[in-house]
Amino acid sequence: MQLTHLQSYVRPTDLPAAIDALRFGGRGTRLMAAGTDLVLSGSDEITGLVDLAGLGLSSVEDRDGTLAIGATTTLTDVMQDVATGTYLDGVVARMLQRVGTPPLRNAATIGGNLVRRQPWSDIIPLFRALDATVTVFDGEHQTMAIGELYEQAAHLTGAILTEIQLPRPPIGTAAAFWKFARSEVDVATLNCAVMLHTDGDRCTAARIYIGATPRLAAAASGAEETLRGAQLTGNAIADAARTAAGEIETGDDLRGDAAYRTRLVGVGVTRCLMEARDRIREVRP
Amino acid sequence: MSTTITLTINGIEQPVAVELGESLLEVLRREGFTSVKHGCDTGDCGACAVLLDGDAIDSCMILAVAADGRAITTVEGLETDGRLHPLQEAMIDAGAVQCGFCTPGTVMSGIDLLSRNADPTEDDVKAALAGNLCRCTGYVKQVDAVLAAARVMKGGPDVGSG
Ligand SMILES: Cc1cc2nc3c(=O)[nH]c(=O)nc-3n(C[C@H](O)[C@H](O)[C@H](O)COP(=O)(O)OP(=O)(O)OC[C@H]3O[C@@H](n4cnc5c(N)ncnc54)[C@H](O)[C@@H]3O)c2cc1C
Ligand code: FES
Ligand code: FES
Question: Domains in chain B, please, with CATH?
Answer without folding.
Answer: 2-75 (3.10.20.30), 86-153 (1.10.150.120)
